[in-house]
Amino acid sequence: MFQHLHSIFVDLQRCEGCAACIDECPMRAIHLPHGKAVVIHERCIDCGQCMLACPRRAISAVTDTLESLSQHAYKIALLAPSLEVLLDSESPSGRVSSRDLGSAFSNLGFDEVFEVARAARVVAFIVERHIEERKGQAPLLSTSCPAALRLVQARFPGLMTHTARVLSPMEVAARLAKEKAAGKTGLSIGQIGAFFISPCPAKVTETERPILTTRSAVDGVIGIDRIYGTVVKQLAEKGSRKGQYELPDGTERETGTDRPAQTVQGGRLRRLKVSGIQTVTGLLEEMERGRPVDADLIELHACAGGCLGGPLNPRNPLEKTTDVGRLIEKYRRRRGCYDDQCLLSIYKKRSFESTAPVGPGSTETPEQVGCVGSP
Ligand code: SF4
Ligand code: SF4
Description:
By secondary structure, the protein is of the alpha/beta class. The protein has 12 helices and 12 strands.
């Protein structure tokens, strides 16, 4: 894995100093010292909102390349749910088969794919048990979105005690996938590499400087934008693609818009879904002021519409017509392969629960680095 403090960087040749990125940054982490945008890395939470806002596409995220696969004897691609939703949308049947997916990623150099949606089901099960155990207390804040978690840590440290103490679906997926691969191949865990195919620059920071664990099990983060065009082309050759979307590597991104919070009454939990960095920030400000929230779980997503709005995703062909949050929920249910007995035994082992101390991390608040007032 490459070693950077942050994933986000500005191409000064492209930057025209329009300040659109500054308006979107929730951390006041960008300034224009000489008419060009400069990121203040001590403040940045890698949410990627500046990438989405920049009309010049001057801001990018550094992620790993496929060359880093060579450091491992056995390589696993951890597929983000949003990637699979996008690829499914390209398929004439509405679903790319596991065999075609495996074959496309095998051509990229991977030995196996593992769907992170499966781990998301494990995480959801554990969070539900935690909520049952703490009945009557304030709602839990989900920790699946690393940008939202870092926002809480940096700007609302008093709310860290409300965060779910469970590893993210990406971390759980890496551990489950490596364990399974070690059993299958006889290799040691250290010989197996797990690479997250990511819609999000904050995942890079999550693996390099994790908040919920001392060491990440993820060995690299590869942006979806790096591989999407190649995978789509290979699926098209197998007839698994409709063909009406042209989405080459490094394709266009669409500026997300904040969406209103949405309450979902499903199963035993009352979940409040909040997406878009401004909406998330507004809710956290209200909670910090002591406003009660009538929910068991608050799902925070920095990107508008959740991970499908991630800055490293190609332009989303579904975004204008589909409630992407509901789509991901439906998708998770369909792909989840662990039954309740299996989930219960995973939960009892408690191996995916966070033991890291709750507290402020290395990202500093704007006030700590000398900013006057709140962003
Ligand atoms: S990634 Fe987010 S926090 Fe960092 S500079 Fe961009 S908008 Fe600000
Ligand atoms: S939005 Fe883009 S062009 Fe405008 S100041 Fe920021 S980086 Fe430069």
